[in-house]
Amino acid sequence: MTKKMIKDAYIELLERNPSKRLSITDICKVADINRSTFYMHYEDVNQLVTEIEDDLLDCIPYPQNITGALSESEQYIALLEKTFDYIRENKKYFSIVFVNFENTNFQKRIAQTVLGRYQSVPISNNTLMTKYGFVFCTNGVVGLIKEWIIEDFPISSREFAKIVLQFCVKATATLS
Q1: How far is CA 111 from CA 24, 25, 77, 139, 144, in A?
Q2: To 5 degrees, how large is the angle CA 13–CA 18–CA 23?
Q3: Tens digits of per-residue pLDDT, 101-160?
Q4: Long-range contact set of residues 158-163: C-beta below 8 Å, sequence gap at least 24
């Protein structure tokens, strides 16, 4: 409960002023706790930020056994749609941490998380080409997601998933 109050206070402060470097005192005032309570849970603001990022990243869906009645393409669209729905449902957090705060470390962590989860499906017999193909697609998708958030989700998660899959398929088509 206290951790949630601290996280919410941090996000609220970032929402008000994303360019300001937040102090523990600022966070404690908004969370209505004292500094010792903050230090019971976190060493510093960086540890708090990392935990907020971890919370967001831990909930990103990933392929587990892509089989069943749907085609592989439909299964990926459904999975991507779930991921994009998750981002939409957590718009406040993603907007602040990912877009407004210009947190390039978080952008890299998103790319690495998605890359690690999706790279289990080879796109080429050449492992180096597969790796580069996934790096290219993942970083491109991160950029697309950022624009999608900035534009306040002008298309549905499903349509966005179709576009993302189409771009990635085209980008890696020559690798196989």
Answers
A1: 29, 32, 18, 6, 12
A2: 50
A3: 666 777 777 777 776 666 555 555 667 777 787 778 888 888 899 899 999 999 999 999
A4: 158/77, 158/81, 160/80, 160/81, 160/84, 161/76, 161/77, 161/78, 161/80, 161/81, 161/83, 161/84, 162/77
* 6 token code pair: 């601290």
DSSP conformation letters of 92-152: HHHIIIIIIT--HHHHHHHHHHHHHHHTTS-S-SSHHHHHHHHHHHHHHHHHHHHHHHHTT
Contact 172, 145 (CB under 8 A): no
Per-residue pLDDT reduced to its tens digit, 3-54: 999 999 999 998 888 767 889 999 999 999 999 999 999 999 989 988 998 8
* Separation of alpha carbons 98 and 87, rounded Å: 11
* Residue 23 token pair: 């102090």
pTM above 0.85, yes or no: no
Q: Measured on CA atoms in the order 52, 54, 60, 61, is the torsion positive or negative?
A: negative
Residue type, 167: F
Cα–Cα distance between 169 and 176 in angstroms, integer? 11
